[in-house]
From TrEMBL:
This is Glucoamylase family protein. The lineage of its organism: Bacteria, Bacillati, Bacillota, Bacilli, Bacillales. Residues 210-426 form the Glycoamylase-like domain. Keywords: Signal. InterPro entries: Glycoamylase-like_cons_dom. Coiled coil: none annotated. It comes from the Bacteria. Residues 1-24 form the signal peptide.
Amino acid sequence: MRLTVRAAGILALAAMLVVSGCSSGGGSKPVSRGVAAKLDKETESMLERESRASFDFFWNEANREKGSKGYGLVADRAPGNPGLSSVASTGFGLSALVIGAERGWVSRKEAEERALGTMRTLLDHAAKEHGFLYHFLNLADGTRAPGSEVSVIDTAIALNGAITAGSYFGGEVQKAAEALAGQVEWPWYIDPANQQFYMGYSPENGFAGHWDFYAEQLMMYVLAAGSASHPVPGDLFYKFQRDTRPYKDGEPFIHSWFGSIFTYQFSHAWFDFRGMKDREGVDWWVNSVRASEASRAYAGDMAATYSTFGTDAWGITASDGPGGYNGLYGSPPSGFDDTAHTTDGTLAPAGALGSIVFTPEASIAALKHFAGKSELWGKYGLTDAYNEAVSPAWVGPDVIGIDKGITLLMIENYRSGLIWEMYMKSSIVQAGAKAVGLSAASR
């Protein structure tokens, strides 16, 4: 197995761990720059239900003890693994505060206070090396969770959340976001031999693996190239392998190693790639549209084998499964011969919902499908995953922060474009986009 994408990093960590239009920020309605046309009441109600419940995860499952060294850190999952925070979940949580304030689910004052406190925790207390945060932290005090690695991708997600919140709230929150970004010494995490980011680092074992294949890492190059304190060359954006293939007779696209659908979504949750191409002429937005269409087609093809799947039940992605968390869940194309992914009938609703900006009709059809299954709904909306192909049928007992996060952010971008609008205002992001060569595509 190649240590090339996030799933590989998750698996390596599991082996080490036993712990299993624009708003001004003033609370006015955003000018819609989203994807959605006018929605019918049923669809709007379903989107609101899942969005609000997903937000509640980030609001409730954070350290809310003011004065605590872990204040604002968000749990990796709930209700499992109490006391364990994920830096990525915290990054999604910072973005969630923007949505919650804008939609009036909490007051702007409450959200701003939580955002500032969270960033001060990340700045002053969270365990880090050369500005890079550890993947998992103890929720109580921000110290390193046993065996956790220093994660470049999870640091990037945390920065994305900080930048988004900084753009929205301004003032001290924005200053804190800029300070957090300024701490990250990007060149330290790059292998000078091949100009690729390492996959992971631990004090015990040093650096391991490389981001040598496409996955969710596009955000890293933009942030690193746009850094005001420790920038790296924009050319790193072109140093990973871009293997391009179709699924059956569909359109070809640059695929990730395991074909997990989240890899085509995460960077797009913040960076608005619409209408842009890179120096090699790649339209990454179109790439994710094609990947989403391929994921749906594969689920339809596999419906006869696994009863969970169908054209309205698609989006195979890294998630919990009957045997525990599985970072290999995905669909073809994968690897070099379509054998790198795993499929066992497990489906995470976040897969299809995280693609709602790319495939609105298909994703909304999937949401309607999920909405008809009462067993999937709980305190924080849809469960992380389920599998109807096993006997008895399995429904995951937990929700996972990164899955609730991609669901919440992509639904908001679909409805209003709010997260895109806030993130793209950042001078760091604008400088990074220019440095890596992202520019308006000629149509």
